[in-house]
Design brief:
single chain; 4 domains; 20 helices; acyl-CoA dehydrogenase activity; AidB_N; Acyl-CoA_Oxase/DH_mid-dom; flavoprotein
Length: 626
């Protein structure tokens, strides 16, 4: 092995000074230069330039074109102007506040110095400021603005939330629940039935940052997360005048600094009995604090949750001990009554998934122009560009999917949606949530690799993108839960599949004159045909007990998501606003990556025993049963 003493080498007599002076450098001078270079800081004279956040609207490669296609010209210009201004505010103010909220997580002070129970929640000042900004910018009110055609206002709202989310310090979470509460109040006409709900609705959709309210939704209890019907152990006692007292234990309650809340409970009848299961649940509205005393309304904050991510967000275990509430659903109709809330919050969840994808890609793209490795900037290495382009393709698919959900939600709220469109919205919502949530995590993880070791360093702010995004496949139903919901959609209405097929076919009508897009269209149509035939075979096998459809529910859900996303990419690429890259993205998504993702054999019920043996091999507690 060759070794050399750099300081004793004769060639140092001709090496230029590290300070750039001309002439030769002696060994004595070289030693001095090295000491000067590393004296004090010991870090040398190189510092890596960090990635920069630029206006997330003007630098987004797709959003502006998509909006110009989806919105009427006059409304598009107003929306574009608003989003550009908001993008500047994100860079100049909001992102710093979001980072501050991350670094100043909430704390709970349960008692004062004299032993009095106070349950004082301490959150970052940035958290409150971000909530004010969210109201001022209309992040909820835009979706309910009666001066705007309801067919388009959701697209505007979701676009703004998409820009806001990664910089929001997780204020995006209470916004999701606030939107869900406002939607529930409107759809059930609760603002027309109860003065309290009318007042609450006006506050929930207010643009006044000092007066606007946020809402919680307390559904999760110790026994169950998604199993709300089997897990709810909260009880309601009728005390007259439409008022109830609630007692129970809410295990996972987010954004507990909210002003109001919607929750589920079982009503105790006059004989002291309750109805178990989902049919025993009713929906209740409650203020978090007593309007006069400002003290908590029979609520005790027992502990804050120590979470993997979303640490900015105050999440707690709550004891409900005589909480005053109003029943706002028919008795036993709690689950159907929260359907509107769940649809909206699931769309918000999908926005978060795609927004986190976009943020990591945007930062990695910028970093690729600044980081030099092996003599070249990262963007000069084809492999690095190939990696980023794969992430970009997936992110664009997700964005178009979210915007399509906004379009359908707007149609439903305008009253102009056809029965077919209503069916597609019902199918689309769980598909959108499960698909984007499942795609986000590996994509963001890959994006973090693009920063090398710096992507693993907490004070860069980069790891929090992955930690916070990890909640999106979990909150509002895990991938398996939502996949089973998709099966329920098909089972509940025999016309759902034909409605989906019709919608896909209608979006693929303008590709005949483009060879690239024709190939994409054929792939999607083949996948759609495969899906129909497979579902038919699985259904027949299910009836004969040879197949079990829920075994492959996840594969069905993911494949529908891929068909939907691919179709939306094709539709956009065939429009007048499309660029060459839009066509390339559609081709890569639909042709280069297979849409068909399963074989019907995975549904064979004979695999159940093999699955259990594989999972529980040498697991003593259960191996005797397999």
């Amino acid at each position: 092995m060759l070794r050399s003493n750099l300081l004793s080498s004769s060639k140092f007599s001709i090496i230029p000074s590290i300070y750039g002076s001309s002439g030769s450098t002696t060994i004595r001078e070289m030693r001095t230069d090295i000491r000067n270079k590393y004296n004090h800081s010991k870090t040398g004279d190189f510092s890596q330039v960090s990635p920069s956040l630029t206006n997330p609207y003007t630098t987004d490669p797709l959003l502006d074109r998509a909006l110009s296609r989806l919105l009427p010209k006059k409304y598009y210009h107003d929306v574009s102007k608003d989003l550009k201004s908001f993008g500047d505010r994100i860079v100049n103010e909001i992102d710093q506040l979001g980072r501050q909220a991350e670094l100043e997580p909430p704390k709970l002070e349960q008692q004062d110095a004299w032993g009095n129970r106070i349950d004082r929640l301490i959150v970052s000042p940035a958290w409150y400021k971000l909530k004010e900004i969210a109201a001022e910018e209309g992040l909820i009110s835009i979706g309910y603005d009666s001066t705007v055609d309801p067919k388009y206002r959701r697209i505007h709202q979701l676009s703004k939330l998409y820009l806001f989310g990664p910089s929001s310090g997780l204020v995006s979470c209470p916004l999701a629940m606030t939107d869900g509460a406002a939607k529930t109040i409107k759809e059930l006409k609760l603002d027309e039935k109860y003065n309290e709900l009318k007042y609450a609705y006006d506050r929930l959709v207010s643009r006044n940052g000092k007066k606007a309210w946020t809402s919680g939704q307390w559904m999760t209890e110790k026994k169950g997360g998604s199993d709300v019907g089997g897990g709810c152990d909260t009880y309601a006692k009728d005390v007259g005048n439409g008022k109830y007292l609630l007692n129970g234990y809410k295990w996972f309650s987010s954004a507990i600094d909210a002003d109001v809340c919607l929750t589920l409970a079982r009503i105790i009848d006059k004989n002291g009995n309750v109805i178990l299961g989902s049919k025993g649940l009713s929906l209740f509205y409650l203020p978090i604090r007593n309007n006069e005393t400002k003290k908590l309304n029979g609520i005790q904050m027992l502990t804050l949750k120590d979470k993997l991510g979303t640490r900015q967000l105050p999440t707690a275990e709550l004891l409900l001990d005589g909480v005053e509430a109003i029943k706002v659903s028919d008795e036993g109709r709690g689950i159907p009554s929260i359907a509107n809330m769940l649809n909206v919050t699931r769309i918000h969840n999908a926005i978060a998934s795609v927004a986190y994808m976009r943020r990591i890609i945007s930062l990695a793209r910028d970093y690729s122009t600044k980081r030099v490795a092996f003599g070249r900037k990262l963007n000069e290495w084809p492999l690095h560009m190939a990696t980023l382009s794969k992430l970009e393709v997936e992110c664009r698919a997700g964005l178009l999917f979210v915007l399509e959900a906004g379009r359908f939600l707007g149609l439903q709220e305008s009253g102009e949606a056809t029965p077919t469109e209503i069916l597609n919205l019902r199918l689309m919502t769980p598909i959108l949530k499960l698909y984007t949530g499942k795609k986000a995590i590996p994509l963001i993880s890959e994006g973090i690799e693009c920063f090398g070791g710096q992507g693993y360093i907490e004070n860069t702010g980069i790891p929090s993108i992955l930690r916070d995004a990890q909640v999106t496949p979990i909150w509002e139903g895990t991938t398996n839960i939502l996949s089973l919901d998709v099966l329920r959609v098909f089972a509940s209405n025999k016309d759902v599949l034909s409605a989906f097929e019709k919608h896909i076919s209608e979006m693929l009508t303008n590709t005949k004159n483009d060879e690239l897009l024709r190939d994409c269209t054929e792939k999607v149509k083949s996948a759609l045909k495969f899906l129909k035939v497979s579902l038919s075979k699985i259904s027949e096998g299910n009836n004969a007990s040879s197949m079990q459809i829920d075994r492959g529910a996840r594969e069905i859900g993911m494949m529908i998501g891929k068909i939907y996303s691919g179709t939306l990419l094709i539709q956009h690429a065939s429009s007048e606003v499309a660029t060459d890259s839009d066509k390339a993205v559609a081709f890569r998504y639909c042709v280069e990556n297979p849409i068909i993702n399963f074989d019907v054999s995975i549904f064979n019920s004979s695999r159940n025993d093999a699955d259990r043996k594989i999972v529980f091999e040498n697991f003593s507690d259960i191996k005797s049963k397999i």
